[in-house]
Amino acid sequence: MNTSLDPNNKRLADLLFPHVSKSIADLRRMYPARNLSETACVTRVAPSPTGFMHIGGIYMALISRMIAHQSRGVFFLRIEDTDKKREVTGAKEVIVKSLEDFGLLPDEGLIATGEVGAYAPYTQSARLPIYHAFMKHLVANGLAYPCFATEDQISTIRAKQESEGLKPGYYGTWALWRNVSFDKIEMELQKKTPYVIRLKSSGKIDQEFKHNDLIKGELVLPLNTQDFVLLKSDGLPTYHLAHIVDDYLMGTTHVIRGDEWVSSLPLHYELWNSFGFPVPRYGHVPPIQKIGDSGGKRKLSKRHDPEASVVYYQQTGYPEPAVIDYLINLANSNYEDWRKENPYAPIDDFALSFDRFNKSGPLFDEPKLKDISRNIIARLDAQAVYDRVIVWAKKFDAKFASLLTRYADYSTQIFGIERGEANARKDITSWSDVFNEFSYFFDENFEKPSLSKMESILDKTEISTFIGRYVDIYDSADDKDTWMDKIRLLAADYKLAPN
Ligand code: GLU
Q1: 451 pLDDT exceeds 80?
Q2: Gap from CA of 260 to ligand 1 centroid (Å)
Q3: Burial (Cβ within 10 Å: 0-12, 13-18, ≥19) of residue 231
Q4: Atom of ligand 1 nearest to the CA of 60
Q5: Whole-number Å distance between alpha carbons of 185 and 158
Q6: What are the DSSP calls for 218-254, one per residue?
């Protein structure tokens, strides 16, 4: 039976979404397709506000922004806050600020002063009526259904599937609420039984799905067969539904995201097709990796690796352009040569290419980052060094910041030593180095040697013996090394400067 012709589907949709009056077509009229050239790419970065800004998030935003800008397209920021359990207060601000700090301001979406752009709201929790309109469409067309299965029932199903050696999950004849009469559903709704809304998957087991990924190339995956949850019991959409609705209305042409989403691709294609929308191109970015303790490669981990966090780079004081250059280099290794030839060119002049991506995930290599950083800092003039160091110190080293403020001109002068020449010094790799390199120029940091040892020869007789011995060994014919050796021996007897 073709479920889409069943009049009960329409009744069910009205019953589930009585307040939804807008259709998908109405929403399309409110958010019309973008008027861009055919070659322009629309990309986005879509972080969840968990409070932790992973360097991978900056990497993804950077790639997306470059792809959009080099094609005269649009790059926007969308806040994916539909998982309320993971959300942390202030996390949105962290995202906005980090993008701003790294020079990755979006063209649309959330910025420091609020949301900008014609496709607002760009924050998913403010888009619930939109998701409900799309869900209503699926239910009305027999492509989604409410499911009242309890957690216990789902575990029982899983256990049975496992014992029978069958594919686990909620699908086909295992899906308890997939083919249930309107009356039975209505009864549950009247009882206010909690429910989710699931996709009614049309996928068949053991069929293949092929995808040509922008970064990973040809992928062959099993077709989706699962009736995934699209709307949770709290009325919030899952990522699967939300990103499709948003990327459709916001006109995303290239979805660039982490490769942990590869396995969900068959589901996402099925959803795009259920709505009858053209599927955008997908590119799955492999994560930045490092060599773990066991010698194997592993993803930079939020829990174990400080360098996974954006804060690490800011605290160390790597200039943002250095981090950006480093990250582009991880994406396309030919960037390094381009950068050598174009040291001052804006990054958008470089043609980032999906074909050149490292498919298995680049290795994080801090010495390389240091090297890039050192070279960038060496090119700055003294005033620029001062301006950047003080911004850094105000955040991370208050004592140094106050010295820099008190001795602004003097500091600029000392930062100018051996700077601005063809072979400028390259001894600063990050702003946190500066204090160590230059601290002795400030009287406040001069540590007086301890007098305790000297005090042992304050005794007058001892002093005269000491001087007598010095006179004895002194020979004006000695060269400086011989003189020094004699002094060392003498001093050692008094436990002074033995080295
Ligand atoms: N909110 C998703 C995440 O943080 C974004 C994935 C995407 O870019 O589509 O993983």
Answers
A1: no
A2: 10
A3: buried
A4: 8
A5: 23
A6: EEEEEPP----EEE-TTSPBPHHHHHHHHHHHTT-SE
In angstroms, the CA 338 to CA 329 distance is: 10
Pairing mode, if any, of strands 208-213 and 196-199? unpaired
Q: Which of 302, 359, 395, 495 is catalytic?
A: 302
Of 315, 244, 234, the C-alpha closest to 276 is: 244
Q: Name the residue type at position 103.
A: G
Residue type at position 259: D
pLDDT value, residue 1: 44
Residue in 49, 43, 36, 33 with CA at minimum distance from that of residue 104: 43
Ligand 1 centroid from CA 172, angstroms: 28
- Positive or negative: CA dihedral 210, 213, 217, 219: negative
Expressed in percent and rounded to 5, the helix, strand and coil fractions of the chain are: 50, 10, 40
Which helix H or strand E contains 229, and what residues bound it? strand 229-231
pLDDT digits (tens, 9 = 90+) for 195-225: 999 999 998 888 999 999 999 999 999 999 9
Give the end-to-end CA distance of the chain in Å, rounded to a whole number.
94
Residues 6+ apart with CB under 8 A from 66: 328, 347, 348, 350, 352
Provide mean pLDDT across the span 408-415.
96
Q: Which helix (H) or strand (E) holds 369?
A: helix 366-378
Q: Give the HSE-up count for residue 240: Cα atoms under 13 Å, Cβ half-sphere.
A: 24
Residue 48 in contact with residue 80, Cβ under 8 Å? yes
For residues 295 and 437, what is the distance between their CA atoms, to the nearest angstrom? 34
DSSP string covering 141-172 = TTSEEEE---HHHHHHHHHHHHHTTPPPSS-G
- Which residues, judged by CB distance below 6 Å to any ligand atom, belong to the binding site of ligand 1? 46-48, 80, 239, 243, 255, 257-258
Of 477, 478, 456, 453, nearest to 487 (Cα)? 478
**3-state SS assignment for residue 444:** helix
